[in-house]
Amino acid sequence: MIHTEKLTKNFTVKKETVEAVKGVDIDVAPGELVAFLGPNGAGKSTTLRMLTTLLRPTSGTASVAGVDVTADPAGVRARIGYIGQGNGGGHSFRVIDELVMQGRFYGMNSSDALARAHELLTSLDLADLSKRTVVKLSGGQRRRMDVALGLMHSPRLLFLDEPSTGMDPQNRANLWEHIMRMRAEHGTTIVLTTHYMDEADSMSERVIIIDHGHIIADDTAGRLKANLAGDLLAVEVAAGSASGVRGLLGRAAAGGEVSENSYDGVVRFRLRLPEGARLAPALLKEMDDAGAPAQSLELKPPTLDDVFLELTGRNLREGANR
Amino acid sequence: MGTQATAAEAREKPGLGQVLHDTRFVFWREMLLPLRDPFSLIFSLIQPLVFLGLFGPLLGAAVGAPAFGGQSTLQWFLPGVVVMIALFGTSMTGSNLQYELMTGFYERILATPLSRSSLMIGRALKEWAPLVVQGLLIALVCIPFGFVFYPLHVLLGLIILGIFGIGLGALSYALALVSQNKEWIFWGVQQTLLFPLMILSGIMLPIEAGPAWMKTASLFNPLTYLVNAERELFAGGVGTDTLLGLLAASVTAAVGLVVGVKAINRNLN
């Protein structure tokens, strides 16, 4: 559905060239749900905007829905749906009018467009607001209207740029419910950007992590976490027996750092343990055998934030400007 | 992926047919605003009447009938007012866009398969459309005061104004894009250009009454040819002035659309 080779975008800002996207290769198969994850300014939105023909690539190629973005941008636009970061509805227009006209822009006839608009308004809980002007909608209602606008022509490939930014948790959950339902019904291929790692984690099957214009990881969230981060294990042993397990824990961490701090006669060790849930029971037994039984144990599964930290040495929330 | 093509994918290749097709929908969307809220149209009808009623008598008294080439003041002044309304209206095409550039509307429209020219033509025509009603209304109002109404000629005059309006509207659209995030530039340029162009075309006062340099300058103003064409048509004639006006309008439209499409594409870099 999407194939890019060395896709690159440079911007000129005050006579200086800024390399926003540095030669990314992306392949997305039909039906996939892919999230571009990265801090603000990492290049994920720029990549998305090149794929949707809203920006011209500086170099490299991209084929979207079988059409080259540079050779036939209008052909690409006819085959995709796009929900941008801003609100797409004209402020003084009625909700229903904007939806119907959007359908007409994509070549739908008026009865199809009207039927589709009502169907979407109902499924997005906007049915009562169809004659309201856009300016009178709440933030969450406007965002749902944006989704309706993007879905009017039932695209087979849908791009969403930061779809849930600024939404409260309930509206976010709502939005995802609609996107997931549409995907289940129509097999739509979905590509989105987000800087919410929990969203990328729970909703996408595949996560492409972008940082400083490069793709630094591309896999399922589960595999990324298992391979790159490992579970966070914290064990406490009596202070007197700590020396007996130090070597043992060091080997378990497989070269990773083991931190320790002591308080109230207890030493607390913390380390990353790949496949922690599977290996922890055996580790406990070895500690027993070494004469240092664990007094408590805490095992935390990794997050994509941990993956990002492992890959870049930075926290996802710290942004790209470091 | 299914093999069934959606309506959008089945679109023709971009061409004149596609532009006309798209323009229809862009125009129609814009027209929904005044149609849903017709009050705005009523006010737009009052403005030209004010000009005719308050400025017309002063003009006749100040300049005197001989300056108008034997026509009555009204017959001379009315076409000028119609051109002026067209000028005010279509040069504002970009001002609505300015607001929409700040929300996500413009981006949403850019991501649709609509042809770029249609975005500008549709909007310019929306600013022009009320002129048809305005023009006919003031013509009817003026009949009792000695204005002779030639409906077909006036209609042709309005069409020429529409072509000119597409060009001016596209330029206004381009100006809004160029002055993105700096609204004052849009208004500054629009106002600074509009008034000299108007005065130098003889809309308000006959240019023949001015010094020689003004007459020379007016020859380089496309608006001059437009105003002359409208005067000829409103007086019931069709001749060289009409042809020159049509030519000036067409050139303005072509230049406007080329500049406008360039401005839209420039933003993609």
Outline the fold blueprint.
The complex is a heterodimer of chains A (322) and B (269).
Chain A: E1 2-13, E2 16-24, E3 27-28, E4 33-37, H1 44-51, E5 59-64, E6 67-68, H2 73-79, E7 80-83, H3 95-105, H4 110-123, H5 139-151, E8 157-161, H6 169-186, E9 189-194, H7 197-203, E10 206-211, E11 214-219, H8 221-229, E12 231-238, H9 243-252, E13 258-263, E14 266-273, H10 276-289, E15 296-300, H11 304-312
Parallel strand pairs in A: 4-9, 4-10, 7-8, 8-9
Antiparallel strand pairs in A: 1-2, 1-3, 1-5, 5-6, 10-11, 12-14, 12-15, 13-14
Helix pairs in contact in A: 3-4, 8-11
Chain B: H1 16-36, H2 39-63, H3 73-90, H4 93-102, H5 105-110, H6 116-142, H7 151-178, H8 183-199, H9 212-219, H10 222-234, H11 240-266
- Give a short account of the largest sheet of chain B: none
For the biggest sheet of chain A, the summary is:
6 strands, mixed
Instruction: State the separation between the terminal residues of chain B, measured CA to CA.
Output: 32 Å
State the helix count of chain A. 11
Distance between the termini of chain A: 34 Å
Helix content of chain B: over 70%
Q: Mean of the pLDDT scores of chain A?
A: 88
Strand content of chain B: under 5%
List the quaternary state of the chains: heterodimer
The CATH architecture of the largest domain in chain A can be named as 3-Layer(aba) Sandwich
Name the chain pair whose interface involves the most residues.
A-B, 44 and 34 residues
Name the poorly predicted regions of chain A: none
Tertiary shape of chain A: elongated
Outline of chain B, from the CA principal axes?
A: globular
Strand residue percentage of chain A? 25-35%
Task: Provide the succession of SSEs of chain A.
Answer: EEEEHEEHEHHHEHEHEEHEHEEHEH
Low-confidence stretches of chain B: none
Broad CATH class of the largest domain in chain A = Alpha Beta
